[in-house]
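re the bet — no i am not wrong, look at it urself. input seq straight from the record:
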Amino acid sequence: MKIPVKLSEVNNANKSRRSRTAARLNAVQAVYQMDMTGILPETVVDEFINYRLPVVDENSSLGFPDKELFCDLALGTAKDLEIIDRLITDVLMDGWSSERLESTLHAILRVGSYELKNRSSTPLPVIISEYVDVTHAFYDGKAIGLVNGVLDAISLRDY
């Protein structure tokens, strides 16, 4: 027997998922900006909250980012950067360190790794899938497989 579901409930669930995806994408961009400019994390996050998050890209279906998730991901990643980079380096091929990664790819892995280790309310496969999707916004081919493999390996480790 099928349980009737209201279309508004489905639309609200989709909006919620898209707002979390938008938060993840913006957190990656914020961590990238912090890394490239050396600007303090709090300053970058304030800039995003006041100027970037309120503006929805007309070409995007993501909508407004979840501000609470965005802040947690961006500031948490910045705070735990050393630990996160060790996690990433631990699962990369021998001889590779996280510093050898291209900057955008590094930011994706940093935020994804932070979320895997600190946001237990979201299932690990969902987190990995979200960052694979974020990677599609910037890359195709091998980078997508790298993000999937690294985050999967980190999710299996007990730190």
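see?? DSSP finds seven helices and no strands in the chain. told u. also Residues 1-14 have pLDDT under 50 and may be disordered. so pay up
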